[in-house]
């Protein structure tokens, strides 16, 4: 079935070519923000997020920054997007009447097992109203902070810092938060296993070492057994950095299973180099009394009758 543009009898808006050039390069929300702005919408993150139903105010900010870089928008000195909103000193009537505000404060206090101070409540509400965090994500973070063993700092400030890390990891919704926590739990379990193989405490790993260990499993596709084999090959160089070099080499050779790194099956890659010395001719190196390499036909042909 063929389609064609219908005759437009209403008001039209000219769309800059830069928007069309970026259609295949960006996501739908970013394009929607561009059309919203071209149509006369305000370049204000909270207004954009509300009018377009975006996931968060941060999503609107990222779209605005994208179009500044693309050349669709200019950012004047007074248009700089604040990284952190000014802290609230009071709640306006709209915020007081928002049912989520009361739920946030009540559930956060239940998670922490104590009453929140007035400043903590205002900071918690600011996460929702000013920074665009969804209430379920905030409460999930509160529960996670309260759950962590040995964490004596069960404060709203801890929640703010943790949410900042979540945002850097791409968390925007409750579903994103659940996936993130599941991934972090799996990472912690794997790091503990690797620490056991190295014979160290998981807390002793540096940030780089933790990232390297995560990469072994997630990008390299190695199992704990293969990592144990790499540690064994490291001999006296049992460090994460040295083992990382071994695993990188194996990955480049396509050897990611225990059978492959132990050289079972067809010899490939480094296995060929390790065993590539051409064997000497068996006839010339065979002992004189080697019955398996003796040419018995020649012996019988050379014999003469007595």
Automatic annotation (TrEMBL):
Pfam families: DnaB_2. InterPro entries: DnaB/C_C, DnaD-like_sf. It comes from the Bacteria. SUPFAM superfamilies: DnaD domain-like (SSF158499). Residues 106-180, 209-262 form the DnaB/C C-terminal domain. Belongs to the DnaB/DnaD family. This is DnaD domain protein. It comes from Candidatus Gemmiger avicola.
């Amino acid at each position: 079935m063929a389609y064609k543009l219908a005759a437009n009898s209403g008001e039209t808006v000219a769309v800059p070519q830069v928007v069309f050039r970026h259609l295949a390069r960006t996501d739908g929300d970013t394009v929607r923000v561009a059309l919203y702005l071209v149509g006369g919408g305000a370049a204000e993150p909270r207004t954009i997020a509300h009018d377009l139903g975006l996931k968060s105010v941060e999503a609107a900010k990222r779209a605005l920054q994208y179009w500044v870089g693309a050349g669709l928008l200019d950012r004047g000195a007074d248009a700089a997007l604040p990284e952190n909103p000014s802290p609230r000193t009071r709640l306006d009537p709209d915020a007081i009447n928002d049912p989520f505000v009361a739920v946030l404060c009540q559930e956060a206090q239940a998670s922490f097992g104590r009453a929140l101070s007035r400043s903590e409540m205002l900071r918690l509400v600011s996460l929702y109203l000013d920074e665009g965090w969804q209430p379920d994500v905030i409460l999930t973070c509160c529960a996670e902070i309260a759950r962590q063993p040995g964490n004596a700092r069960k404060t709203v400030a801890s929640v703010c810092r943790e949410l900042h890390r979540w945002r850097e990891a791409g968390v925007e919704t409750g579903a994103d938060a659940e996936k993130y926590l599941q991934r972090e739990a799996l990472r912690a379990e794997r790091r503990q296993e690797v620490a056991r193989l190295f014979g160290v405490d998981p807390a002793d790993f540096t940030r780089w070492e933790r990232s390297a260990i995560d990469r072994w499993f997630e990008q390299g596709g190695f199992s704990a057994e293969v990592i144990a084999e790499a540690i064994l090959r490291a001999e006296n160089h049992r460090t994460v950095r040295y083992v990382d070099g071994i695993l990188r080499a194996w990955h480049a050779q396509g050897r990611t299973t225990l059978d492959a790194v132990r050289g079972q099956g067809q010899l490939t890659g480094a296995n060929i180099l390790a065993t590539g010395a051409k064997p000497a001719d068996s006839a010339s190196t065979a002992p004189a009394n080697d019955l398996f390499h003796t040419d018995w036909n020649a012996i019988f042909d050379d014999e003469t009758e007595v």
